[in-house]
């Protein structure tokens, strides 16, 4: 599990995003580019279920809930480990008004950390003799 709180710059902070520890915003020359965690994990053979959701509106909450359900199903099937990244809001850490947070997430974070199912490989079926 990866999490960041307190409004500090993290590995996933997008370019230009202001944080409490980088008031001018992240720039690639000094801090590199944001790490797209789900994209990296989706390349691993042992990860059959990888998704990135968001919780900035009712539709995204419902889709993210489905991603979590699918991740648990994959785990229970013994197909490998699952990874679900969830974009959440932090208006105080973003220095914006609370009511602007859902749109900020959509426009600034989800445009880089694109939401959706990145990988969903069905569990392999084992067939015994004569089946």
Fold blueprint:
Layout: H1 28-31, H2 37-42, E1 49-54, H3 58-76, E2 82-87, H4 91-94, H5 101-109, E3 116-120
Parallel strand pairs: 1-2
Antiparallel strand pairs: 1-3
List keywords for this structure.
131 residues, alpha+beta, 5 helices, 32% helix, 13% strand, globular
**CA-CA gap between termini:** 40 Å
What gyration radius follows from the Cα positions, in whole Å?
Answer: 17 Å
The structure class reads alpha+beta
Provide the helix percentage. 25-40%
Strand content: 5-15%
Query: How would you spell out the order of helices and strands?
Result: HHEHEHHE
In terms of per-residue confidence, which ranges show pLDDT below 50 for 5 or more consecutive residues? none
Strand order of the largest sheet: 2-1-3
- The count of DSSP E runs of length 2 or more, i.e. the number of strands, is 3
Largest sheet: 3 strands, mixed
Average pLDDT reading: 89
3D architecture notes:
The protein has 131 residues and is α+β, with helices and mostly antiparallel strands. The protein has a domain at 38-120. Helices cover 32% and strands 13% of the residues. The chain contains five helices and three strands; from the N terminus they run ααβαβααβ. It has helices spanning 28-31, 37-42, 58-76, 91-94, 101-109; strands at residues 49-54, 82-87, 116-120. A three-stranded mixed β-sheet has the order 2-1-3. α3 (58-76) links the parallel β1 (49-54) and β2 (82-87). The protein is globular. The mean pLDDT is 89.
